[in-house]
């Protein structure tokens, strides 16, 4: 493969001065690249200077661009143009702006001054001292400008003048400090020409600072007496100082002064801790444009380098208050300052022009470009990698560009790398230009970088993070220092240990280099997380950012390799975090505090063997889905749902070889319940061979399985101990947070961050150890290269059942392996068929009884079918009956016969072997359910099978020789017996079924079976018992009131006779326990000459009629009956009542007739009898007859005879034509 150095010129070295350019220094004009945008920027800058020259007004502009965008280069080239440097004027791309400037620039004398503010104490010091230094260098013989404060100087000069005579004082002052005029310099000659006198001296001393006279005097005094005051540092305020400066420059013949303020905004950003300073100094920038004086002697043009708006430049790591302060500073210049933007998008074109031009001495330019283009297109073909490398944004919308053209100009660098480079440079705030760093990367790889290689983002870590000066800002300085310390002191040693090499072998170790690149990329991502390319550093993104420098044993598996390598590192590096998922996100958390030291605070006994055993036990139990609250040596009951039943599996943890903690008795299972003994993956006093040796000496044919894990390696035991310590500190298990107590001397903030660190470390260690436990317990097949466990040839699963075949655990997880193991145990224990499916959920009693109901219905049907309504019931019957061959559901019909019920043939055949052919005791049938092989049915399911068998075989249930009715599976006990019951003759059955409907209101099955016979007896008996008491009471009531009702108690027909017959029938039926006899009773029921329906109505309505009879006012009816002989109305009431009573209840409702009769009787007894009308009275004017005074009568009544006497009195009054008011009051019991 072709080396890139054969296609582009890569230098063999790079020096400190190759790319670091200050605006005050000569530019590398020969290599300067002018883009179209830069051409326009130079045009804007030159027009600003021309405008200032033409108008005499000061101008200012921000030169806006990120680190590496070429601000210093721009100012340096601009300075050379303004100073008429022909080499600068000849730079390709600048012809148009220079031609435009030639309209005013020729013949102009431009004073170019450069100011670097880093380290300055104030803007005045930087600008005025900078001017003093630079103008002195340009004009060493000119008098210095009076830019320092002169008050103290004039006071001192006044004292000096008093010690000298005026003649001597003014002579020295006039000679510029020289004893004579001979050989005097320019300053002395100017002083001599000034010709100071007492009068001119006093006038100048009284003038205001900044005036011509005052400045002249200060200059003379400085030259004559106070040459040291030039560097005294006592400067004028900026506004006054700029007046002095412009006057001084004008006196030297300059037309305009151009100030290049490099690092001014950067300087302010370094003083963010002093908000007052930033506000004060930042506000002074406006003085570059505005002045309290109307006009300066010459205009100033200021170019101020700025790295974006300051709040953006500092990135997201700066707080809101600091950000707002800087924003206010920047906003104060809006409207006064222009802006020239040196866009980041210039960088790719400049990089291509200066560093990556194709063509060398051996390969022509076109051929070199073709080869590079082909290599670039190969990268473009990998779409996943391409999209990530193409991300050239820094944060927000800023960036160098994210398109194909940008990438091609930068190749073998990527937009993602350059965006990260610019962001790191901004954080560092150092003059490490992008071109300089990119050249260093090329030089370092000069002998290895091939044309198809893309330089990865990890390459930036060495030059920008690991080496060089740290940032000035304290917070960023801590972050960068933490990155260095984390890498040097922790991550790199861990990587060396992970790869089993020393530092000397690291450079040539491919796997180490892969790991190292990943770690460096993560560290860069931690320092500048705002860069979009560094968001969500998944394995695929880490691979893309270092494309070509990360390889895998199998091409295409780079992502899996990265996940594996970083996951192993995260086991020991608490700073490295990993999310869940198939493509996890990795990140590094930087801190200046070593939180792992917290683990040293944990007592040694918290990592004892017992603690570690409990820790493993808890983790395994969580995976298994069983509780672990019974204690270290307790046995856990795990309920396994299998083939429709919940089977108990006992789980016990312990060291198998240890006879003290695990005596033989604890190793043997009892009965058919299985016991799984789970050992620990470590043993201070033994090994797996000791466990296997003890198992060999145990009794066989017990339902016990031993799960013997491989032992953990020493490294994994260390991690297990770390997790135990973290659990202790965080108070796992409800014991409380101990961190506050043990780290009481730590700050609250450090403790809080330490807790977060430990929680994240705890989570990762648990996840990592769970993966290792899968290896240890054989769930995941270990490879020979796995160092987490100590492999041997012994089995992981061992059983005390010799015939039980057990292989290795399978399933991929501990829970799946345990589920498969317990399923295998139950399959071996219960292999019989038919059975329910393995995954069938436990069957409920309600479902079993629902099936039983359908079986009962089908057994009573001639076609042996039962309709199953609803999808839920259909599914229930199908999954139980079809799988068990206990009848079957076809479409929506449940069919039960000898063909569909496998169990009928099976039970009859097997019972016959033991001599049972006519009757079948449950205790005999139940064991037959597990022949020829056990099936493990739950008891209720066994009962269902027996009950369905009974229905299919037309058998009845008996207990202690008594027939019983089984309505639910849980009623069946082993004391019961199934046999064929005595059955009524068919004609008797037919008559009984036919008469049951009209008499009892029940529709019964016409098909005669034990089930229908049982159903017949149950239902008829239930009806009889419900009405027998009411019918007996009805007979009693009718007999008692037979006289009033007109009933003949000796009659063979009629209501009373029917009631007596029905009552007798119900009593006999309710007391009869033999269903066959009961059928005969119904078939031959004696109801007289009436129809069955009439008899049925009699007893069905007996309760309401009985209640009506009991509640009737018989005294009232008796009184009316007594009057019937002489009162036509009373006679009519009684006759109508007796007529109703004479009919059967089905014809006339006696309860309603009683109600009507009572109402009529009451009305009759209170109705007045009218007397003959008297003749008309003669009209008379005499006084009318007095109105009769009402009389009041009162009687106490205690019996019916007294009532009759009162009634007679009332009747006499009414007969006499009087109106009677009747009222009564109950005064007590008689």
TrEMBL record:
Pfam family for this entry, one: BREX_PglY_6th
Domain ATPase PglY C-terminal: from-to ranges: 993-1169
All residue ranges annotated as the ATPase PglY 5th domain in the record: 847-950
Classification via InterPro entries: PglY_5th, PglY_C
Sequence segments annotated as region (Disordered): 1172-1196
Protein name per its UniProtKB record: Phage resistance protein
Naturally occurring in which organism (per UniProt): Nocardia pseudobrasiliensis
